[in-house]
Amino acid sequence: MVDNDGLERVLAPDRETWRAWLAEHGEAAPAVWLVYFKKGSGQPSITWDEAVEEALCFGWIDSKAKPIDDRQYMQYFSPRKPKSVWSKINKARLERLSAAGLMREPGLRAIATAKGNGSWSALDDVEALIIPDDLAAAFSASPGARDGFAALSRTNRRNTLQWIATAKRPTTRANRIAATITRVIGS
Questions:
Q1: Out of 3, 82, 118, 146, which could bridge 139 as a Cys pair, Cβ 3.0 to 4.6 Å?
Q2: pTM of model > 0.90
Q3: Local structure of residue 132 (DSSP, 8 states)
């Protein structure tokens, strides 16, 4: 079945079906909607975690999900962009998948590309909650900002640091730092 955006919808009752689709179409398809049945539907369906693991093996990644009806939803999967960043969780998944011998050439190429261009380690400081120098300077210039940031949950601090770290332009990064200062002073 093809969605109204022209992308194929793939129904995978199990991870083997999804893996077979990726092996056959993963290097040529631009993207796909993977269809899941909700738990209460009574229909067999791959789980999100299984789908992500198989996608990683072939150099693909998940993105937005949207409902189809009260029994199904679909999630967008596509090949990883060369400069997309790698989370600690996905790196841990890749270690397990590699140890189990499940990685395939496209997935290994995606990892090699990421290690070569720096996107593999781009979130390491974020995951460790290391405050970058420009944000630290903004904290120093704004009384209460450092304490406000420290009062955020670990998840909120991590998400904020990732939001700042993934800015593509210096002006965007500066604007995100300013917005962060405003937000944490007000909290």
A1: 146
A2: no
A3: P
